[in-house]
Amino acid sequence: MKRIINFLFSFICVCIFCVPAYVFTVDLGVESYVTDAGKAAGYDVANTDEFSLSKNIGQVVNIVLSIIGVLFTVLMVYAGYLWMTARGADEQIEKAKSMITAAIIGIIITLGAYSISAFVVPRILASTTV
Fold first, then answer.
1. d(CA 60, CA 69)
2. Cβ–Cβ contacts within 10 Å for residue 79, how many?
3. Which residues of 91-102 are buried (b: 16+ CB within 10 A; e: fewer)?
4. What is the mean pLDDT of each run of 10 residues along the chain (130 residues)?
């Protein structure tokens, strides 16, 4: 089990540090400074994409949820492999069952957090702002 955790930790570190990171400018409400800096640097200011902070946070949340989904799948496959190769060993079957239970609880908590952030929070913000 420790080898699998070390492998997953190494895989996540490689994904985080080796995947190219996108850097976006944050709209601080002072667009003229950013525009003037872009013009002074020689960039075409008219043909740029603007991303707000909320879109960037949404992209990060989507990436994190994707990683959690992959981790859930890996844990379920590994637990199934343990169960299939148990050959009647009750200890290994119980380990696989507890791993499946923990993975399902984790994905339920993750989906609950996503549903709260995706559905409840916008409705609260819409009802509180005029």
1. 14
2. 19
3. eeeebbeebbee
4. 75 60 49 71 68 70 86 94 92 94 92 83 73
Q: Are 83 and 97 in contact (CB under 8 A)?
A: yes
User: What element of type H or E holds 27?
Assistant: none
The pLDDT score that the predictor gives to residue 25 is: 47
Please give the pLDDT value at position 114.
84
DSSP-derived letter for residue 19 is S
72: Cβ contacts below 8 Å, ≥ 6 apart: 103, 106, 107, 110
